[in-house]
Specification:
This protein is an alpha/beta fold and 155 residues long. Helices cover 50% and strands 17% of the residues. The radius of gyration is 25 Å and the shape is elongated.
Length: 155
Amino acid sequence: EGTANAEAEVSRLRVVVANAEQKRAEAERALLELQEAVKPRHLSAEKRERFMNFLRQSPKLPIEIRCMDMEGCAFAKEIEDALREAGWEVRGSAGVYAVMSPFFGLVLVQKEVGNALPALERLHSALSEIGFPPRASADPNQPDNVIILAVGARP
């Protein structure tokens, strides 16, 4: 009877250990997902090169880059540098602009709705191609033939 009880206890402990291992693996996966979700956005060398190649031969317009927070401004600076290297005119330098309400992700702004400028369409495609699809917006107070790229908080 003692041996049977010991074998039953060993079997029970094996199940406990297996369940604990499964929970540990699930916790590690959740931690990796969380770390990826809060990691700052960044243009890898490969994405930067693809982005610039996509834009070098495209129609170009002056662009202003605006950002909302420190992480967004660091990412905006990477985009700014790549745009300049691809031959785009970036007016000013990426800097924090006051906004009425926080926003997330990237937003491309032009003056009018419904008549997307070819340069804006190409920039939209280039950002989408490298995994950072922007939303489109219009602001009638913006100057003609200037694109605004607003870099909000990490989505």
